[in-house]
Amino acid sequence: MSAGGDRERTWQAGPVRVRVTLPRREERPPKERLTRERIVDTAMALMASKGYDAVSMRSLAKALDTGPASLYQHVANRDELDQLVIDRIARQLEIPEPDPEHWAEQLKDVLRQMRDLYHEHPGSARAAMAQIPTMEGSMRAAEGIMAICVAGGISPQAAAWMCDLAALYVSAVGYEESLWVQRQNSTAPGEEPDHEAIDAEMVELWNQLPPELFPLLTKYAPEMTAGDGQDRFEFAADVLVSGLAAVSEKYR
Amino acid sequence: MSAGGDRERTWQAGPVRVRVTLPRREERPPKERLTRERIVDTAMALMASKGYDAVSMRSLAKALDTGPASLYQHVANRDELDQLVIDRIARQLEIPEPDPEHWAEQLKDVLRQMRDLYHEHPGSARAAMAQIPTMEGSMRAAEGIMAICVAGGISPQAAAWMCDLAALYVSAVGYEESLWVQRQNSTAPGEEPDHEAIDAEMVELWNQLPPELFPLLTKYAPEMTAGDGQDRFEFAADVLVSGLAAVSEKYR
DNA sequence: ACCTGAACACCGTTCAAGT
DNA sequence: ACCTGAACACCGTTCAAGT
Description:
2 copies of one chain form a homodimer.
Chain A: E1 7-13, E2 16-22, H1 36-50, H2 57-63, H3 68-71, H4 78-90, H5 103-120, H6 124-129, H7 136-151, H8 156-184, H9 195-207, H10 215-219, H11 221-225, H12 229-247
Antiparallel strand pairs in A: 1-2
Helix pairs in contact in A: 1-4, 4-7, 5-7, 5-8, 5-12, 7-8, 8-12
Chain A binds a DNA duplex (19 and 19 nucleotides) through helix 3.
């Protein structure tokens, strides 16, 4: 019952017996203090386990064992919460040291990283889309893309607009993926998406297409349904990077 | 008070006096019958005048002078309503007769048309993003893009994946624009967006950037903030089309 | 067959009152 | 300074009852 008391720990490290007194960490006294940190942590955990739609000011408050009003002491509103979440995620981006010889592959790597971050944090893409990116985390992505492109000889104007285009595309992809996931496991939340079920649904959809109205979609149904999200993303990254190289001089 | 009675109209057409009895159109008897048509019309009008967020099953019902439950007789749910709305909009796409010589310009034209449709129907991009496109209207865009690309010698696989990429990018642009509009005139809804105010806010944002953390964003602030939505869209369309041409053979 | 009032289980946000 | 109960003005959807 000694809530909040100092904690001791002892263990054997080889021949030595170690005994430390841990600093008085808040270890759940009746009520742990609410902080932005804790709110964002909990929001991310909730989003990861139950999806974006499961995160509301009220459900979040309940997860923190308090009432919705308490959150407004630390977070201006729902919008700012979303912003804090995607900021936290964007900080994990690792921008490579620009290498002029390999700018194209480096740029693709950053795009892949962005996609992976959205993927690892299901629902985060929806939070990213719902806002105009203004926070430090999102700015780092832009700074990194600029560095890679400029080092690679891309004109600054083309590189600058590419930051926009890339961010928009990647978040849209993440958003779309989250829709499939949400739809597919609306019954069993928190599960991995069942790619086979999704594919089956897709194929079904294409088979029902009236050929008189959509001759080409019918003819090229195999191409339209070919590949998974990975393949399509690689294609898109390829198009974006090749396109950037192709038009760079026009926007000098 | 003769609700629902036949209507007569007479007028002078040159020397002739014309008198017609109009067919008994439902002209608002106590209650006009609810139809999908009327529901979608009203939803689009509401969205255009007050934005996507102003359209709810309840507000829509009120605009139709009924209760929310009545809508469910004609529309499965909110999701289907969104689908019907963007289907209606997508039908307005005019696919050009494919001309192999000018496939690139034709493809850009279709992208511009898509962007313009979202722009003309504020909020529709948000409805488009919120769903996996499955309806006839959206399929027409894909059919048209395939026709133009294949005529232009693009490999079917690259063309097929381009349909995805293009739709995703254009709807994301529309979505982002709707966020600015909504933010900017949250006080005065239904107004044209104030581009100067938006630009001023953007510039302000860039000026506050710490140069130690973001040397390139600071150095290239003019490029980062250059151009309006139109310029950026033209750049993106250029990148996408040039990129498609560049990678087409790789995805044969 | 179509419509509807009332209810259910939710939202975000505010504010006065508490510690 | 921080927290909170209660309230306000909303959501989407269902269902039994009405015409």
